[in-house]
Amino acid sequence: QVQLVESGGGLVQPGGSLRLSCVASGIHFPIYAMAWYRQAPGKQRELVARVATSGSTNYADSVKGRFTISRDNALNSVFLQMNSLKPEDTADYYCNAVGPLTTLWGQGTQVTVSS
Q1: 88 vs 80: CA distance, rounded Å
Q2: Which neighbouring-strand residues pair with 39?
Q3: How far is CA 41 from the centre of its chain?
Q4: pLDDT of the residue at 19
Q5: 36 falls in which pLDDT band (50, 70, 90)?
């Protein structure tokens, strides 16, 4: 079955950390560019971070220096380490895979940053 499954979301206090994971199945993972997007209530979905097949990364300005995206091709997984979390990081976070012919989305995991 072709799918992306996210995990790791939850409630965290401002300044805290979370690590999101996304496991892919049914695809040849190394040839897919992977990304994390997020969507806050009432807002459009936005790119958070992307890691290319080469391993190169890029980030939204709002998360630079706080978030780190990484991939492990052996585990068919992509991760998002989120540090120094702020209330404005509260959103549903989605894993995204872009391949030669296919774009996939996960079901999302909720991140809430609140005291």
Answers
A1: 17
A2: 92
A3: 17
A4: 98
A5: very high
Nearest one of 65, 31, 64, 70 to 50, comparing CA atoms: 70
Strands (E), 1-115: 3-7, 10-12, 18-25, 33-39, 46-51, 57-59, 67-72, 77-82, 91-98, 103-105, 109-113
Structural tokens at position 31: 């040839």
Two tokens at 44?
């459009």
Please measure the distance between the N-terminal and C-terminal CA atoms of the chain and give it in whole angstroms.
39
> Using CB atoms within 10 A of its CB, is residue 66 exposed (0-12), middle (13-18) or buried (19+)?
middle
